[in-house]
Amino acid sequence: MSILLRSLSLLVGITLAVPAFGTCLTAKETKQGVLLTREVPFFSVFYKPDGPVLTEQKLVERNRSLQPVSAVYLHPLLVEKRVGPNGTHELKYANANANAIAIALDDLPQKKNWQSDTTLFINGKKSVSGTTFIRFDGLGEETIASCSYKVWAINSRLELTGLPAIIFEQYYSPDLNLVLRSVRLGPSNQPLSEVRFDRFQIGWGN
Known about the structure:
Blueprint: H1 3-11, E1 18-19, H2 27-30, E2 34-38, E3 43-50, E4 53-62, E5 65-75, E6 78-84, E7 87-93, H3 98-106, H4 108-111, E8 113-122, E9 125-144, E10 147-160, E11 166-173, E12 178-185, E13 191-196, E14 199-202
Antiparallel strand pairs: 1-14, 2-3, 2-14, 3-4, 4-5, 5-6, 6-7, 7-8, 8-9, 9-10, 10-11, 11-12, 12-13
């Protein structure tokens, strides 16, 4: 897989924190920042609201070392920018108004679909263009640390000229304003990989 495709896969899919014992995660607590962790294989990601956007911090393994990656989401279902070992990758949407995008995505159960012309910029330079498609597929539940949360099942697809489509099935909690599970899909919608979390912690990032 090319460096460009690996970086795009990160676009669409550590901190100090205070553990939360014996309670379930609430919307009020997520505003303080939340660390979601998968035990095997180990993976942690820290999310924190920052005004109208959501920020993400995590460590990824590259060349047998852990390297920091940060990201900004216009909505938990829609990444805008990711900064990592391969530089800055930014997706710019034709529907550029962040508030309008958030309102439209919050209305997915009624509207069912959202799409936008999309352009990828790498380190500030225009690379390729295409379309982002987001589809509401139904309702469900996800469990983290014995706590159940109502979620939307969302299909997210990024098609850029000359590159294979990047497809994810995401399980988004509108109450927590977080994606609680994400499945990378192949071209025939077969599961390729999955991130499902085992526990959470509340607190501030470094």
